[in-house]
Amino acid sequence: MHSSIHDLMRAASRLTQGGDLQQATENIQRALRQAGLSNPGFSPPGMPVAPPTTQGTVLDGYVFEVGAAKPTSAKTDAASADFVSGTHSHAGRSLAYKLYVPPGYEGQSLPLVVMLHGCTQNPDDFAAGTGINELAREQGFYVLYPAQAQDANPSRCWNWFKHNHQGRGNGEPGVISNLTQAIVRSHGIDPSRVYVAGLSAGGAMAAILAEAYPEIFAAAGVHSGLPPGAARDMPGAFSVMKTGVSPAGAARANGASGAAVPTIVFHGDRDDTVHPLNGQQVVTKALGDDAAPASQRQEQGRAPNGRRFTRTVHTAADGRVLAEHWLIHGAGHAWSGGRPQGSYTDGTGPDATREMMRFFAGHRRPDARA
């Protein structure tokens, strides 16, 4: 790609962060035209139009999710002394992180939830929007927030769509999994109760981690994300975000892999950034060899704040819950039941944070070792 396109995208990133969404959109559109991707037959997924909305676009490693109001203060209700910062290095990569340590549980072997933020977010923003630190204080579990560096992706997106960040021991999955194991050891965490969850690009990376490291993660939560292997490069990312997984991509995503990890999926059926068919594909992938589970139960419901949803539960012959799929009707690209203190949240939906923790509580790895 020509260097001028990279310059335009970097400028768009700076403009987005500075709040000038109109000029950022024009830069993205110019970059697309130079890349030959802007024509009447090609419509990039989630390309913002004036006035901008909560949508995104992908271009050669740049993922923009623009239009969401950023909080002026991304503080949590938890005491700051319990929310500590650190840096972890592994295989030539360094990763900043924050760790929430629930007070009052000294000496106990608690669970750990690894939370992967979405594009343009950071640990403080994600913690504020999901409210999971408050739930961790209430129920007693650690929360680890790896932080994507801006020099790894200008919009701080996890690089789920790059082939070198999709496998065991490679790239971002390698360093995140190594960080997770280090936190488990250093804080005496119960290794049988380690979970991973994420939103959007973070949800896609959570699915990759669950597939690549089934011996670490007992269950996964994927919110508005995509299945592992859905895309291997920039053109594939455009396609899968816009229309869902292609037949070729579905065959690749459903290919041979390690042991399936129980997974709970949330996705809005009005998501214009990541097509909701991706949520269904995450469930199919999570079922693995149990693609035809012993039973499937579907129920309709309504959240206290208004959103209707369809919940589908897939159960094995022995009664184990293999997967849950929550399709949130009328919802877009946002954390269901989230708080307005964080970006990309929808407070009218069912509480994804509590439902994920309920799901996680029902799963642990019987063969885990400290």
Brief digest:
The protein has helices at 3-18, 21-34, 123-130, 132-139, 171-186, 201-212, 234-243, 247-253, 277-287, 352-361, and strands at 55-59, 62-66, 83-90, 93-100, 112-116, 142-147, 194-199, 219-223, 263-268, 295-302, 308-315, 321-328, 335-336, 345-346. The chain is of the alpha/beta class.
What does this structure look like?
With 370 residues, the protein is an alpha/beta fold. The chain has 2 domains: 3-66, no CATH class; 80-361, Rossmann fold, CATH 3.40.50.1820. Helices cover 30% and strands 22% of the residues. The chain contains 10 helices and 14 strands. It has helices at 3-18, 21-34, 123-130, 132-139, 171-186, 201-212, 234-243, 247-253, 277-287, 352-361, and strands at residues 55-59, 62-66, 83-90, 93-100, 112-116, 142-147, 194-199, 219-223, 263-268, 295-302, 308-315, 321-328, 335-336, 345-346. The chain has a 10-stranded mixed β-sheet, sandwiched between helices. Helix 1 (3-18) packs antiparallel against helix 2 (21-34). The longest helix has 16 residues, at 3-18. The protein is globular, with a radius of gyration of 19 Å. The N and C termini lie far apart (46 Å). Residues 35-79 have low confidence and may be disordered. Residues 289-308 are annotated as: Disordered. It comes from Rhodoferax koreensis. This is PHB depolymerase esterase.
